[in-house]
Amino acid sequence: MAGQQVQGTQVVGRVALLLRIVARSADAGASLPEIVRASGLTRPTVYRLLAALAAEGLLDHNAESGTWYLGPELYVMGTVAAGRFAIEDLARPGLRRLADETGESAFLSIRRGDETVCLVREEGSFPLRSFVLHEGLRLPLGVGSAGLAILAFLPDDEVDRLLADTASREGRFGPGHTPETIRGILAQTRRDGYAVNPGLILEGSWGMGAAVFDRNDRPAWALSLTGIEQRFRPERQQFLGRLLLEEAHKITQQLRQQSAV
Question: What residue stretches are annotated with the IclR-ED domain (predicted)?
Answer without folding.
Answer: 73-257
